[in-house]
Amino acid sequence: MIGGFSFRRFLAVLRKEWIQVRRDPLTLQMIIALPVMQLFLFGFAINTDPKHLPAGLLSVDHSRYERSIVAALQNTGYYEIRTLDSEAEAERGLAQGQLLFVINMPAGFDRAVDRGERPMILMDADATDPAAIGGATAALAALTTALDRDLPASLRSTPAIAPFRFALHPRYNPEQLTVLNIVPGLICVVLTISTMFVTTLSITRETERGTMENLLAMPVRPIEVMLAKVIPYIVIGYGQVMLIMVIAAIVFGLPLRGEISWLWLALGLFIASNLALGITFSTIARNQMQAIQMAQFTLLPSLLLSGFMFPFQGMPRWAQWAGEILPITHALRIVRGVLLKGNGIAEILPELWPIALFTLVVGVIAMRSYRETLD
Amino acid sequence: MNAAINISDLHKSYGRRKVVDGLSLTVPTGEICGFLGANGSGKTTTIRMLCGLVKPDSGGGTCLGLDIMRDAAQIRRQVGYMTQRFSFYEDLTVAENLDFVAAVFERDDRAEAVRDTMDRMGLAERAHQLAGQLSGGWKQRLALAACILHRPKLLLLDEPTAGVDAKARREFWDLLHDLAAEGLTVLVSTHYMDEAARCGRIVYLSDGRIVVQGTPDAVTGGSGLVLFEATGTGLDLAARALRAAAGVESAAVFGTALRIAGIDRAALHAATDATPDLIWQEVPPTLEDVFIHLLGRPA
Ligand SMILES: Nc1ncnc2c1ncn2[C@@H]1O[C@H](COP(=O)(O)OP(=O)(O)OP(=O)(O)O)[C@@H](O)[C@H]1O
Ligand SMILES: [Mg+2]
After folding, report:
1. Which of B36, B41, B203, B205 is the best mutation target for the ligand 1 pocket, counting ligand atoms within 8 Å of the beta carbon and taking the most?
2. A228 and A347 in contact (C-beta within 8 Å)?
């Protein structure tokens, strides 16, 4: 026994927790289904290559070349084009999400091409979900050969000079987050949900079912109970990260670069910060409902302020400060950095200590608020 | 011999409500002490204070010679506390629950202790049944088994037989007497009168204070309660009329007999005289009569 800590009692609680985790079908389903479901849901919503996107055509003269280009656009499979009557209709369509693209054919397009003026076709794009239009915009580059059959050899496209150009005008989300930016973020979010939520529930369940009174009446120390409660979820958390990474690598082509061992370490700390928060909530909450509400209350800012949903640099200063406090903000930077940029310990460290500090502070609060009596 | 429980002037309030209000109690080693009182009279709170789960506002004392304020951790090792509400893990089997308790108490002979206790409590057949699937009586048995597994010196049982059938209750109490014979002290709260009658001593709580205590016989004898019983016809109508009569605390029909009770003998005589077609005779009070009388008394 060191400082009242008994390894045997700790093992006793751990064994009990492990049996309970194994027997609780809901927890088990959540543990496996949550990351997989989220990954596929978010991942595919972002990363699949959606085809037949609704596009509108704004044109005055409906010329010959225009018809060739429209046909070529249709042939890529990405565009489902209909002709629009007015700019107002185009604006409305984009705003309401009925149109993802508006193709603006300039007046006198054919003449301009023939004169070798290399005219510009303006493409307005709804970039709210950048990945949704990613494939479609990428396909534009190859379309400059669309008129080659109609044009004299002198005007045909060459690698250097095309007879006309597309000018993409992304709307609503000019930053254009990429898929790869979001999958690592999912690792952090899924970890937050599963570790924080599940520990919170696991402890409040004891209070709610009355088993806490019995536990308190027996000679177990709070530290033994808490360690035993969180360790299964640390194991589970790592399992989930592994699952996500494997799926992300195989299905979404996530590059696994950087120093992965440091990533494991950093994620361990991140999990610890979530667990500390979960324990704190569960000691404050009187029932599982309250606990869930508290957990949800933190999840929202975690999603909004961490840079997961919106680019961090685009947020107002106060929101950035709030975001800097959250462990998920730093965890997100670490995961993105390691997986996408191949970062190592030098880049990880500055993001690691804020998580450590948070964990320490919240951990102390958790330990202190764990009641040894029923008062 | 040292008293197993010796507390004096315990106070506990929740908000402005005094739940335990100057409670002093001594329970000698080896005694079965029944804890009685209306709902909300402070039985559970007192028991919780005895094992350190609730901190008293003032007052103090000892449990097994250990200070209830300072030595809660040591008290917990030697006390078996059975909560009022079933508080074992419903998703663990009987054997797993007991094994957990044995492990938490750091028993070296875990498997053996679990097996012995299950044999003793007749739980062996149900060893691999989930606790949540046990019937009420068996749950209580499991809870008691878990309480005695670590060979405590004192049992604090909070309504251990609530909702258990008569036979199972009888067996449960036989077991308590066996344990007491082995030198265990038992403090047990109950609302059942037949159980109160099996206690060496009963302590009656009202609003956090002890109102009456003593052997069951002393309690019935010292109550000063007078009872008259009548047989005849029209008992239900008579009972209704008598309930309104001065000095009659209760008038109740039991099958073919009507019983009235009160403190004031003269007033009761007056009441019985008012029902000339019934033949009355005086009977000794039972524990139940005494408790109904105590429960009805304004605080
Ligand atoms: N944690 C608490 N917070 C506030 N009030 C409480 C708390 N615990 C108990 N009480 C109140 O204290 C009073 C006494 O409760 P206690 O559980 O000790 O009564 P009891 O004698 O065990 O009753 P019962 O026979 O119904 O079990 C009740 O009015 C109850 O509402
Ligand atoms: Mg009670």
Report:
1. B41
2. no
Phi, psi of A5 (to 5 degrees): -80, 130
Residue ranges of domains in chain B, CATH in brackets: 3-220 (3.40.50.300), 223-295 (3.30.70)
- Indicate the domain borders of chain A: 53-171, 179-369
Closest C-alpha to ligand 1, atom 29: B40
CA B28 – CA A180 distance, rounded (Å): 73
Alpha carbon nearest to ligand 1 atom 19, residue: B40
pLDDT tens across the length of chain A (375 residues): 334 788 999 999 999 998 988 888 777 777 778 777 777 776 665 445 667 888 899 888 888 888 888 888 888 888 888 888 888 888 877 766 678 889 898 888 888 888 888 888 888 887 656 666 777 877 887 777 777 777 777 777 666 677 888 887 776 544 444 555 667 778 888 888 878 888 888 888 888 888 988 988 898 887 888 888 888 888 888 888 888 888 878 877 777 777 788 888 899 999 999 988 988 888 888 888 888 888 888 888 888 888 777 666 666 788 888 889 999 999 988 887 787 767 788 878 888 999 999 999 998 888 887 777 777
CB B236 within 8 A of CB B279: no
Starting at the earlier edge strand, list the strands of the sheet with B66-67. Answer: B17-28, B3-14, B58-63, B66-67
What is the side-by-side strand order in the sheet with B154-158? Answer: B79-82, B154-158, B185-189, B32-37, B201-206, B209-214
The verdict on a CB contact (< 8 Å) between B51 and A217 is: yes
CA dist A256 and B82 (Å) reads 55
pTM (predicted TM-score): 0.75
**Cβ of A220 and B55 within 8 Å?**
no
Report which secondary-structure segment, H or E, holds A301. Answer: helix A288-305
- Please tell me the distance from the alpha carbon of residue A66 to that of residue A85, in angstroms, as a whole number: 16
One-letter amino acid identity for B28? P
Chain B: give the shortest CA distance to residue A375, in Å: 6
Q: Torsions phi, psi of B81, nearest 5?
A: -110, 125
Residues in B touching A19 (Cβ below 8 Å): 91-92, 96
The CATH superfamily holding the domain A53-171 is abc type-2 transporter like domain (3.40.1710.10)
